[in-house]
Amino acid sequence: MKIDHSLPLEYSTEENRLKIFGFWIFLGAEIMLFATLFASYFTLYNRTGSGPNGAEIFHITPVLLETILLLTSSFTIGLGVHAMRLGRQKAMMGFFVVTLLLGLAFLGVEIFEFVTYVHEGAGLQTSAFTSILLTTLGTHGAHVTVGLFWGLYILIQVKRDGLTPETGNKSFIFSLYWHFLDVVWIFIFSFIYLKGMM
Amino acid sequence: MSELFPLKQVMGFVFSLVLTAVALGVYYFDMSFAVGMTVLLVTAFLQAGLQLVVFMHAGETEDKGAIYTNVYYGVIIALVTVFGTLLALVWDMG
Predict the structure, then answer these.
(1) Which of A30, A182, A194 sits opposite B40 (nearest CB)?
(2) In A95, A130, B9, B33, which residue has its Cα 20 to 30 A from A50's Cα atom?
(3) How do residues A76-103 score in pLDDT, each as one tens digit?
(4) Cβ-count burial of A124 within 10 angstroms (0-12 exposed, 13-18 middle, 19+ buried)?
(5) pTM given for the model
(6) Which of A17, A39, A187 sits opposite B81 (nearest CB)?
(7) Are B50 and A5 in contact (CB under 8 A)?
(8) Which of A20, A21, A24, A45 to mutate to test binding with chain B, by most B CBs within 10 Å of its CB?
(9) Average pLDDT of B48-75?
(10) Least confident span in A123-132, B1-10, B32-41
(11) Nearest-CA distance from A40 to chain B in Å?
(12) What is the 3-state secondary structure (H, E, C) of chain A?
């Protein structure tokens, strides 16, 4: 395996470079997945039937908390990748742990929010609006959940093998996934929550 | 210690918080739907671009062209899906 030391660890072999590009293609497909969910949401958001509408069930505090948790986690994983490029394994792992804890806190707030919705009479089957709302938020939340496990397994591998072209590449690709989830959340925050409460 | 907090990423984080605060303006201030949506569209897409360039290192290697082509393609399909749906199903043309 040819290792190019002039490039960051995660790009240092041809295979690594192609894996990163392949993941970008996957993210392109993810953009389209969320686009279909947003298109459905915009079509259905005023079909509330006898259930509540957005303004009645959205609360700014949990939403703002979720936004800050996820934005900060996106920052800390960025610092993790930076530390990895400096070869600082301990610092890198520390930043990844903080990222996953912030992600876990985000998920906690989101689950609390879902429970509140159901208590307020906005379940998955209440109306077209609540269905598409919970499907869209749930798809994002499921991605975060997958990310938590993925990140955990990455950390275990970095601890076991150290920073190698292979673990570096895996860690970098995981960071792309995590930043992407933050981008999706920004659109949920803006065009579902803030628009709904405007 | 400070080498672990590069200025570019710290500034990127600060800027993303500022964009969030600006977007929050549509909640705290009374504004028309058109003005509010403009604010949200501008802040959301700036925020997305910021993540892409500062945190995802999209432009750092020789794959830069292919990565951006792929992202633009995804975004174009996303916009056509969303606005095509709005045009066909929501906006009343009658």
Answers:
(1) A194
(2) B33
(3) 999 999 999 999 999 999 999 999 999 9
(4) middle
(5) 0.94
(6) A39
(7) no
(8) A24
(9) 89
(10) B1-10
(11) 8
(12) CCCCCCCCHHHCCHHHHHHHHHHHHHHHHHHHHHHHHHHHHHHHCCCCCCCCCHHHHCCHHHHHHHHHHHHHHHHHHHHHHHHHHCCCHHHHHHHHHHHHHHHHHHHHHHHHHHHHHHHCCCCCCCCHHHHHHHHHHHHHHHHHHHHHHHHHHHHHHHHHHCCCHHHHHHHHHHHHHHHHHHHHHHHHHHHHHHHHHC
Fold of A9-44+62-197: Four Helix Bundle (Hemerythrin (Met), subunit A) (1.20.120)
> Is A33 within 8 Å of chain B by CB?
no
- Using the predicted structure, report yes or no on whether residue B59 has a pLDDT greater than 90: no
**What is the residue extent of each domain of chain A?**
9-44+62-197
How far apart are alpha carbons A192 and A45 in whole angstroms? 9
Which of A60, A79, A197 faces B4 most closely, judged by CB atoms? A79
Angle formed by the axes of helices B33-50 and A165-188, nearest 10°: 180
Question: How many beta-carbon pairs below 8 A join chains A and B?
Answer: 139
| Selected residue of B57, B60, B61 to mutate for chain A interface (largest A Cβ count, 10 A) | B57
